[in-house]
Structures are given as structure tokens and as C-alpha cells.
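Hi P.,

Sorry for the delay on this. The queue was packed all week, but I finally got your sequence through. Input first:
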Amino acid sequence: MSLMSILSKREEALFNKPPKFDIRQQKHFFTLAQSIIDTAFKLSGHFSDMIFILQFGYFKATHRFFDYSSFHQSDIEFVSNKYKLDRPDLKFTPHERTMRRYRQLIKEYFDIKEYKSDIKRQLEYHSIDLANNFVHRKKIFYELVNLSKKLNIEVPSYTTLSKIISQALNYQKRSIIVKLEAFGLDKRLEVLDEFLEKDDEYKNGCESTISFFRHPPLKLA
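Then the structure:
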């Protein structure tokens, strides 16, 4: 199955980046309970502590995790000042094992459910329902993002959501074709066929009969 283009390249790039926060949002999303901070800070070094706080805030807002390289400098500065943490060099690479543990801690804190087959089916059914109601594919995408948050799961990747939507749109097309094929045997359609037949007496047969009714000839006085 070919993967359809759901978002523009610019929209896809924005989806894969952390949200942009103003100062009020930074205060809200990057203020963590001391208990979760203490638990996280026991696992790693100073620089990784900051990454945990940033990942926590971004996940709280979006139900998604992002690469450290995409973190906004303004958020790094805010967290550094708030928690008195040194700012890591942009070339700093956090240890993957620590990052996996961080992600697990964050998902446990927010009681995030696993992306299992029953969850996937809910997204697929919702996508098909929207497609059958001729909702634009871009709107379907963001509806699935919102549904993922309501189901309390980590929002699937752009590729995963695109596959679900592509399947739904292909299903919709097949359903329409099947319905149209059923009408093909309807005798009442033969009347319409007559209107589409070429009229040999009108401009060398270049016009169909229906054209006569759209543009009836002028009556002579």
C-alpha cells in the first residue's frame, strides 16, 4: 500500500518538533513535583537532569517525546535558570539507557497506556468513520492526535498515523466503487445513457443529446 501525503513537508516538520511555549506556558509545563524530580535525578548526571525536565514538559503538552537536538533554546534557558542547572552543550548526547528510563518514568507518571491492537483498532475505526464522512485527510490526522490523547497513549508517529489514514481512505474508495457498481445494472440508468448519445443531426454528431436541452435552438420569429 502506497503511503499518502497527509501533511505538507512544513507541517510534518512542525509536528516532529516540540511546541513553542510562551513564558506562561513554560512556567506551567516545566514546573514538576519534587517527588518526580528526585526520582529522575538519582538516575543520571547534571545535564541529563535538565533533559528530563524538558522532556517531561513537552510530553505533558503533546503526549510525545522529542530528540534533544530539537529542544528550543528558550526552554533550555528557562529550565536552567529555574532549577539552577548548567546548560548542556548542543553537541551533548544523552545516554540512551538513561533516556529510555526517563521516558518510562514519564509514562508511568501520566499513567500512559500501551499502544496495543485494541487501541490501534479504535484509531482505525475512527479514521474510517471520518473518511466515510468525507473529512479532509489533514483534519483526520489531527483528530487522531486528539483521540490518542483522550485514550491516554503516547501519540503515534507521523508515519504510523499516515498509514492508518491511507488505509481508511483506500477503504472509502473501495466502498464507493462497490456501491457504484451496484447501480450499473439499474435499468433506470438507461434513460440517462440516451441523453449522452451523440446526435448525428447536430454539427456532424459532435454534440450529445443532452446539449440540446442545455442550449435549446433559438426560435425564429
